[in-house]
Structure prediction request, 545 residues.
Amino acid sequence: MKNLVLMLAVFIAASNTSCAQVLSNKEGNYTEADSLRGSLRPERAFDVQKYHLKLKVEPEKQFISGSNTISFIAEDDLSTIQIDLFENMQVDSILQNDEVLAFERKHNAVFIELEETVKANEKGDIQFYYSGKPIVAKNAPWDGGFVWDKDDNGDPWIGVAVQGTGASLWYPNKDHQSDEPEEVQLDIAVPNGLMNVSNGQFLGEKDLGNGFTEWSWKTVNPINNYNVMINIANYEHFSDSYGDLDLDYYVLPYNLEKAKEQFKEVKPMMDCFYEKFGEYPFVEDGFKLIETPYLGMEHQSAVAYGNEYKMGYLGNDLSGTGIGLKWDYIIIHESGHEWYGNSITAKDIADMWIHEGFTSYTEAVYVECRWGKEEALEYLKGTRRGLGNNATIIGDYGVNSEGSGDMYFKGANLLNTIRSIYDNDELWWKTLKDYTETYKHQIIDTETTENFFNKATEVDLQPIFDQYLRHSDLPKLEFRKKEGKTQARWIAEVEDFKMPVDILVDGMEIRIYPTNEWQNLKQNIALEKIKVNELEFYITSAYIK
Prediction:
């Protein structure tokens, strides 16, 4: 991440503007491995109930070993199940009812022959023992893997980031975003003198008497596979509370005072997000910021923080407006994911804009809460400078394919455009909060999102969603004079595209309703007097003379 400090000099690609990993665009050249990972095959017809990870982490060897007990409910009769684990990791043994099971490996999938068929709607569990050296990330969090680092005191400092790449990089699981365990327990043994911090509430520590101490944590809410996490260092812990929500912070000892000052931003953020999105979705599991040797990630209830205690994004402003330097980007963005991505989750990663577009919008929401709507609009407009508009936001379904990195800020600007179409802020905030609370702890898709926002307004939003999400180009608003009349139309790939938009004429705002056919405006306006409200609508425009 440290080589990104100069990014603003070159207009950052959207895939590098935030912290989730966007997979490379394969342009349809998918493999069997992609289908095994991305599709819901019969061997995946089960609902995961719990993961219980029991691991030993050896920093000097960059080696992990242990087991995951996987509890599930069969959706159909299961005699063979698919569990995912990267092929560089060793499968030591797999047990069901203390019986060793036969298995076959294909790419990063493990097909396991059950000793006893688990009937539909019945519960089963297996114990999956494994070991190995997980892939090391070259540039976390934009590529997946372990980060084996040392802090300034020479102590091991270890983190993991695997969104996009897959949690099966380091532990066996059903690695598909459509299924989340209802709870996870992590018993992680690390060398004495180090601490492991994971998701959920702290259960306790135990000296194993062999030079290692086991740190135990447990979540009681559904959690994405890629959010299940370990963070290992010689951490210093301090805590606070926000109402009934526990706030816990784990930082390197020499950064304690800086952290106490920087993390004061959490409470005004919670004030804003509670008001606009509803209660924090994982109160029972608490909220943590954990200092990591990479920039950051939205690990549920254990948010990774590596912004070097700077305002903005490593001291820079992604919007180029100066507004982004008023707040800590990683605290706000990654915490916003607790509502969008962690609580509301996309069923297929092709719909990851549901995570990233909404979360990027939370940045502007926070700006509006603190400094007003005008600055929020300026911030959003500034973020457009990194957008390419050269690929679709939605990816290909069933093959583990994300869409364009434009999903971040183009998604945020789409939401702001819809707010402007509503033209009723009371209705907008109510709809956004209702959406967030309606689908709390649920796994949904783009169609569900579109329908929810569409029902709240008389304007048909479907052509708008289609153009912004399923086509790469922005809609272009054209004006011309013909036979003394001022005319306007949309140029868009969506057939019969129409969208209301505001224009400014001599400082007066006028709403017009263009379609993809030339139409006369009610007012006969000189072209040079028309100014499109591009602050509130993310479009392009042109004047034909």
